[in-house]
Amino acid sequence: MATDDTKQQTVVLYPFPGVGHVVPMVHLAKVFLRHGYDVTIVLVVPPPGLPGFGTGVTDRIAASNPAISFHTLPPIPDDAHLSTSGKKKKHPFLLLLHLMERYNDALGSFLGSIPRARLHSLVTTMFTTHAVDVASKLNTPAYTFFTSAAATLAVLTQLPALLAGRTTGLVELGEEPLEFLGLPPLPASHLMPEVLPHPDDDELCRTIVNVWTRIMDADGVLVNTFEWLEAGPVQALMDPRCVPGRVLPPVYCIGPLVGDGASGGEAVNRHECLAWLDAQPARSVVFLCFGSRGSLSVEKIREIATGLEMSRQRFLWVLPTVAGTDGSVNLEALLPEGFLERNKDRGLVVQSWVPQLDVLGHPATAAFVTHCGWNSTLEAIMAGVPLLCWPLYAEQMLNKVLITVAMGIGVELEGYKAGFIKAAEVEAKVRLVMESQEGRELRARVVECKKQACTAMEDGGSSDAAFSRFLSDVENLAERV
């Protein structure tokens, strides 16, 4: 129940500009709103040309969430952050990380414009942790919202000590398993590619590790997960061995936060794909979607098409961006000759955004071919849909291990390891999930995960209690200032 005091307080959320960070922040904002707080999400304008970092989607999100205030910081001139070192151009993601840090002054000015008595807290994400310095100067509680799994957080907290004990990077270990507290053995190759070099030899690796290290400087970490789902990693985050010589701030598992359908209300009219799903039998459709940054070559896309056709299963396929193009491609030329005509009664190919949560929750949807982004993983769990895992980038290979080994709610398309998944494997794995006893067992386990997730989010459930504990801890911090 909201109080008069909480209605006067403002929570400032400061996400990294990627869609995969902004969308979960919107979900978090809605939790604060339900507790009676005002919420402002502070955005920056990223440099043009970065995939998955465009302003169009964030503008649409802002327009469809009028209860949340959005504030865009004044752009910083390009000439400083686009400079290169010698003849070698810096990685675009490295430039963006440096740019974000340069926004600290502008963020401080905005926070300073809010009366101290009204400023409840600042919440950063995993790539904006440097902003804790801004909050510290203003004596404002600062927290990090970790939008990936608790397992990923456990890896990141243990990573600096692992790298410090080596003279070479992790890339040379290949498939050699690494031991992290709270996780199954993890092949070195399954870590984020950016941290495989040694920090002493690679500026991007060094910068990312430094940014992640700052998580421990926050007053606490909100994680988009629930304790039952990741009991091992959550316990590891409370183990002194997780970060030798330091103790992590409190960890609050407050998820799963996945929105309420239609991607937070982005679509005014019901999407055509949902009408198509209405006409399909229950649990008969394989849904394929590879996220906002998913990109595959023409050859890989044609292999998927051939495998789907061979499987004889119904499918809804959100076509990923075609590598090497600007996104505008002719379907007839892209897909195998005659594919669309032969499959017009069994499949639908879409080239634009679809309301993923609504598709997963539709009674006709039976399986999900996914890049294993954490947001997508949680949405599949909340829909009770098993996953076929095709990780593409970032921490998605780690998520694949969680999905297939720790949780047992999906299978991997093994060809991704060699960079090419053949049609025969697409056919076999789709049939396995859709037709076999193993597929039925996967579905039963993910349905149990959904049940536990709903319990965690109920009044008095573990995630609801964790959020209440977080609010109490913020209040205690404020009283000590």
Automatic annotation (TrEMBL):
List the InterPro entries hit by this protein, alphabetically: UDP-glycosyltransf_plant, UDP_glucos_trans, UDP_glycos_trans_CS
Q: Does the keyword Heme apply?
A: no
Q: Where are the transmembrane segments?
A: none
- Top-tier EC class: transferase
What keywords is this UniProt entry annotated with?
Answer: Glycosyltransferase, Transferase
Molecular function GO terms recorded: UDP-glucosyltransferase activity
EC number(s) stated in the UniProt entry for this protein: 2.4.1.-
The answer to keyword Glycosyltransferase applying to this record is yes
User: Which segments of the protein form a coiled coil according to its record?
Assistant: none
Pfam families attached here?
UDPGT
Give the record's family classification.
Answer: Belongs to the UDP-glycosyltransferase family.
- What is the name of the protein in this document? Glycosyltransferase
- Organism for this UniProt entry: Digitaria exilis
Q: What is the lineage of its organism?
A: Eukaryota, Viridiplantae, Streptophyta, Embryophyta, Tracheophyta
